[in-house]
Design goal:
This protein is of the alpha/beta class. 20% of the residues lie in helices and 29% in strands.
Length: 346
């Protein structure tokens, strides 16, 4: 299967640089897979398209301020992106898997310096861009991140350095139900929810079920293989509680909020569609030919061409129908990507 079959042209002006003024005022495209119909609404009308017996499955992972700036002993600047904690150690000593840029001249044993007397020793190299970094900080690590870290926005959202530290992005690039710190990217389909939207769903008897999948840097990584089947996903950790699994399995339809919730459900489901509770990891790559076992509806944003996210959506909705939906979205000036509008595929 050729990756080029999943390309499309997007005018740069449609890449959302800011979120909607009100979360639930984003536009909502509603796609019916059976009839092929495409309707247009606002997100605050979501409850009109769901029904009793549905269970809304959301990812409650919280984005950490994972982007840090450091200095080398030569005075040169280095950008650090935290990926995952390899060893929690003590509150003031932790080891992390990180991306380091620029990578030229880096070697194990080097020391990087941060503000407030904090430092990190470059450890073992994991891959071309990934390293282990051993931090020694003068205050608890969580406080160090809150003071020195920056929200790691996707590269297509442009910010000047002083803007990157702004509180609006730290608050808006986060779902209102984010609870468990660990992601370096937001599960963006959930950014549109407000208490009023959730209340309207609960009034209809539609529960919100929380699972956790910590979104890694792989969500930004392009597919480099010419053949889709040759691509390998980054491994990400997830957790589903017993109570969450019970509610999902009892529901007539699981409505996955975002591709991360969808991948979590599909990884944890057996061939009969029953979801197992527990803590595990997934490298599930969903592309056309895959048969969904548990996800019955999908709420998702509009994704980059030739991305793993776009392929997942094409798999769920059907490539032809999704291509038509994207064509209409461009024609109707929908806003694309993380801070953009969304679609509900039924």
């Amino acid at each position: 299967m050729k990756l080029s079959d999943f390309d499309y042209n997007l005018p740069e002006a449609l890449i959302a640089q800011e979120p909607a003024r009100e979360r639930d005022q984003a536009r909502l495209m509603v796609i019916d897979r059976r009839s092929g119909s495409i309707r247009h609404a606002l997100f605050n009308a979501l409850h009109q398209f769901l029904c009793e017996g549905d269970a809304l499955v959301v990812n409650n992972s919280r984005v950490i301020p994972a982007r840090l700036m450091a200095k080398k002993s030569t005075g040169g600047r280095m950008e650090v992106l935290l990926l995952s904690c390899a060893n929690s150690g003590t509150p003031r000593q932790q080891s992390w898997e990180v991306l380091l840029r620029p990578g030229k001249g880096l070697r194990s044993g080097m020391t990087l310096w941060f503000a407030e007397g904090c430092e990190a020793r470059v450890g073992e190299r994991i891959s071309e861009k990934k390293w282990f970094l051993d931090f020694t900080v003068s205050l608890p690590f969580d406080e160090f991140l809150e003071k020195q870290g920056v929200t790691p926005l996707p590269p297509y959202i442009k910010r000047r350095e002083e803007q990157a530290r702004s509180l609006p992005d730290r608050e808006r690039y986060q779902t209102i139900y984010a609870r468990v710190p660990g992601s370096v990217a937001a599960p963006t389909a959930g950014l549109h929810f407000t208490p009023a939207v959730l209340t309207a769903l609960q009034t209809m008897g539609i529960p919100m079920v929380q699972v956790t999948l910590h979104v890694g840097y792989g969500t930004f990584s392009p597919i480099e293989a010419e053949q889709v089947e040759d691509h390998r996903m980054e491994i990400e950790g997830y957790e589903i509680s017993r109570d969450a699994a019970a509610i999902i399995n009892h529901a007539k339809r699981a409505v996955a909020v975002g591709t991360t919730s969808a991948r979590t459900l599909e990884t944890a489901a057996d061939e009969q569609g029953l979801v197992r509770s527990g803590r595990a990891s997934t490298g599930l790559f969903i592309y056309p030919g895959y048969r969904f076992k548990r996800v019955g509806a999908l709420l998702t944003n509009f994704h980059l061409p030739k991305s793993t996210l776009y392929l997942l959506v094409c798999t769920f909705g059907g490539p032809e129908l999704i291509r038509e939906a994207y064509r209409q979205a461009i024609e109707e000036s929908y806003r694309f990507y993380s801070y953009g509008d969304c679609m509900l595929i039924l």
